[in-house]
Design goal:
With 135 residues, the chain is an all-alpha fold. It has a domain at 3-91: 434 Repressor (Amino-terminal Domain). The chain is built from nine helices and two strands, in the order H-E-E-H-H-H-H-H-H-H-H. It has a two-stranded antiparallel ribbon. The chain is elongated, with a radius of gyration of 26 Å.
Length: 135
């Protein structure tokens, strides 16, 4: 493995799965393309993001060590932040909704009060009567 390939496949000593590295690289290319389509220079983009040009360059090159905050700032400058916020929206997570539906109980029954705790004098002294019913 060459030094450049090894560098692209690692972040702070942790290996990055090749498919994830490809996805991050594509994300960086897409950010670069969106920036250029808006005719924003790297100097201006980095200044708006509050980072250095080298950090923007690393983001656009698909460096997996770039922070999520840097990605969020880039998307904000490009007017695309809402896409990040909606990325894992539970309402659009079909698998999550299906799994949640399977685990829903078929019926809900009310809890029965424990007879020994109702007749206990300590329950009256503790101020349990002050709590709203059902809590």
């Amino acid at each position: 493995m060459t030094a450049s390939t090894d560098k692209a496949a690692r972040t702070k000593g942790s290996a990055v799965h090749p498919s994830i590295a490809r996805g991050i690289a594509r994300l960086g290319q897409d950010i670069s393309r969106a920036r250029r389509a808006r005719r924003i220079s790297t100097t201006d983009m980095a200044a708006r993001m509050g980072v250095g040009r080298s950090t923007l360059h690393r983001l656009e090159q698909g460096d997996p060590g770039v922070s999520l905050n840097t990605l969020a700032m880039a998307l904000s400058v490009l007017g695309l932040f809402d896409r990040l916020a909606d990325l894992v929206d539970p309402a659009s997570d079909e698998l999550g909704l299906m799994l949640a539906e399977k685990t829903l109980p078929k019926r809900i029954t009310s809890r029965r009060k424990n007879a020994s705790s109702e007749n206990s004098p300590s329950a009256d002294a503790s101020g349990a009567d002050d709590a709203p019913e059902g809590w």
